[in-house]
Amino acid sequence: GQNIDQPTEMTATEGAIVQINCTYQTSGFNGLFWYQQHAGEAPTFLSYNVLDGLEEKGRFSSFLSRSKGYSYLLLKELQMKDSASYLCAVRADYQLIWGAGTKLIIKP
Amino acid sequence: NAGVTQTPKFQVLKTGQSMTLQCAQDMNHEYMSWYRQDPGMGLRLIHYSVGAGITDQGEVPNGYNVSRSTTEDFPLRLLSAAPSQTSVYFCASNLPGTDNTEAFFGQGTRLTVV
After folding, report:
1. Do A4 and B42 lie within an 8 Å CB cutoff?
2. Cα gap B23→A59, rounded to integer Å
3. Residue B105 sits at the chain A interface (C-beta within 8 Å)
4. How much is the pLDDT for B16?
5. Dihedral pair phi/psi, residue B84, rounded to 5°
6. Strand ranges (DSSP E) for B8-43?
7. A22, A70 in Cβ contact below 8 A?
8. pLDDT at B100
9. What pLDDT does B99 receive?
10. Rounded CA gap, B104 and A62, in Å?
11. β-bridge pairing B104-105 and B87-94
12. How far apart are CA B60 and CA A61, in angstroms?
């Protein structure tokens, strides 16, 4: 079966660093995506990994280990506007399989 | 740059009513899809299309119909609304393939069936 697991909720402090983990078991793998979704809004693209290793994009980085079925999203220098849900999705053939998302709460 | 335009943003239906959610994209994307998002669950694929004239079922297709007569438009029809279809619906489009083809989402439709 297809399964993607993420923590339901995390809390972090403004200015700190937070790591959001994602583990997956899917029948195929053509890449892993991270999306950000603010409350009441549509998901927006953050990052894409298809090879093992770390992809850095400003304050956000994403890591992938295909052998372990594991990814994480690292957010640095947290800002209040980073309060949102973070969705992990794996592409298997044409389709995206989505995790339930991690709600990140930022405290001042 | 319109991207993906989805209407309406909010809708209340009575059980048994029918309606169509509209979705249009202007990026010439071949792949379009409809998802529903429920609390505590990931986005679940309802139907998808890999090009004009081609549609297929996703994970939760029952109670929904789609058609794709043009590359731009991909409407979702609820034939006889049920309370279990209360959800937030998203239309998305992307280029096909296995590269970094990010999905672009419409603004979402918050549907309540009473």
Report:
1. yes
2. 33
3. yes
4. 97
5. -65, -10
6. 10-13, 19-25, 31-37
7. yes
8. 64
9. 65
10. 20
11. antiparallel
12. 33
